[in-house]
């Protein structure tokens, strides 16, 4: 699993629908997830550390989880199927005396899981499959620099850069030196 962070909420220029954008730690990859207006509002409030006078839905959910003796260990955005993301909220028993780590997984929409994770200050993890299928480059300049460096490296390679293993005292067929 790859830990990612909420970069913010954006609006789709074509449809006006909100998008939550997750970034990897290097800010090289972005994972855009289209969400509803209410979920965007819940995520924005959590990002702004807004404390309502009365609990909103995600605040109530977090209070219920804690009241039942659990904590939000982390969330996972673990599947992308037919343009739909799937997430899991992983709960852990909140008892330091407990010898075993009891966890429970709860199926959730990514937007709700993210809103809850932000309130609980829990990590957000994304599966490698989702990163591979759903992310887009976020730092085109750095990608271009690396591509250019690689091209220069390839252009400067010579046949003599590849020495015969036998000439170095190694025999790849025998496996001995």
Describe the overall structure.
- The protein has a single domain, classed as Bifunctional nuclease domain (Roll), CATH 3.10.690.10.
- Strands 6-5-4-7-1-2-3-8 form an eight-stranded mixed beta sheet.
- The chain is 32% helix and 31% strand.
- It has helices spanning 37-47, 57-67, 110-120, 128-134, 140-155; strands spanning 2-11, 18-23, 29-34, 70-81, 84-93, 103-108, 124-126, 136-137.
- The protein is built from five helices and eight strands, in the order βββααβββαβαβα.
- The longest helix has 16 residues, at 140-155.
- The model has no long low-confidence stretch (mean pLDDT 86).
- The relative contact order is 0.17.
- The chain has 177 residues and is of the alpha+beta class.
- The radius of gyration is 23 Å and the shape is globular.
CATH fold description: Bifunctional nuclease domain
Q: CATH-wise, what's the superfamily?
A: Bifunctional nuclease domain
Number of strands: 8
Portion in helices: 25-40%
Write down the Rg. 23 Å
The strands making up the biggest β-sheet line up spatially as 6-5-4-7-1-2-3-8
Extract low-pLDDT stretches. none
Class, according to the CATH hierarchy? Alpha Beta
Query: How would you state the average pLDDT, rounded?
Result: 86
The structural class is alpha+beta
Distance between the termini: 39 Å
Number of structural domains: 1
Shape: globular
CATH architecture: Roll
> Biggest sheet, in brief?
8 strands, mixed
């Amino acid at each position: 699993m790859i830990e990612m962070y909420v970069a913010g909420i954006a609006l789709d220029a074509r449809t006006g629908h909100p998008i939550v954008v997750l970034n990897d730690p290097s800010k090289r990859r972005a994972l855009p997830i289209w969400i509803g207006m209410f979920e965007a509002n819940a995520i924005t409030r959590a990002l702004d550390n807004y404390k309502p006078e009365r609990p909103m839905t995600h605040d109530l959910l977090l209070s219920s989880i804690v009241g039942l003796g659990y904590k939000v260990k982390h969330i996972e955005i673990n599947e992308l199927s037919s343009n739909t993301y799937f997430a899991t909220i992983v709960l852990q028993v909140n008892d330091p005396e407990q010898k075993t780590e009891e966890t429970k997984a709860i199926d959730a929409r990514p937007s709700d899981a993210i809103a809850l994770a932000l309130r609980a200050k829990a990590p957000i993890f994304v599966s490698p499959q989702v990163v591979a299928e759903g992310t887009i480059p976020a730092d085109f300049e750095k990608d271009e620099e690396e591509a250019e460096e690689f091209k220069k490296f390839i252009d400067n390679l010579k046949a003599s850069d590849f020495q015969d293993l036998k000439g170095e005292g190694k025999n790849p067929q025998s496996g001995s030196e």
